[in-house]
# Entry
Amino acid sequence: MVDSRNNMAEMAMARANVYGLLANVFREAPSGLLLLKLGEPEFSGSLKALGLSLDEMFEETPHTQLVEDLAIEFTRLFIGPSNHISPHESMHCDARFGEKKALWGDQTVAVKKFMQAAGMGIDDDFGGMPDHISAEFEFMQQLLQRECDAWVNEDDVLACNIISIEKKFYDEHLSQWVSNFCDTVIELSKHVFYAQFCEVTKGYMNFEKETLEELIDEAQKTVRLSA
# Structure
């Protein structure tokens, strides 16, 4: 029982760390500090475990230039002012009743209500919409951190319920648009940084699809054994 709880807690924290990283990547242009962390051996080893290597990028481009290049690319891809790729769910899913896609659309409202019902929201410092890709990833990170705490505190029922919320959010929101968003970024990106991170993000969404059902089964088994 202890081993099962420990394994589930470790898995939850590992998944939380991935969502946290992805939230940072898509929230804003990467800071010099973030790029330094990504280049550290320990961090770069974790990235390689996800199938991502940025070694060549760091070797070929001076740090200051890289920060500037990525700020320009982030703006071009996600902000504009010319054509850009909106990082919001509402701009990638069909609106109801044939309405035109728009910011603060149906999906935005649905995501906000989902977060509120779960008793969580996005970071006050973010200042963006709840259906921004980084806000949705941050929400999953928060859920997973709570799940980890529940396993550590031996609150198996709470942990199991949180996993069900994770799967519901994945099914109703993340699975509906993130992969298509990443495909568009990969097609239009001029920098390896965002192309590779979008490949990783797509792969991670597939991992979550395959893993969440298994985790629910494992969590329910742990609840039954502890009853």
Notes: The chain has a mean pLDDT of 90.
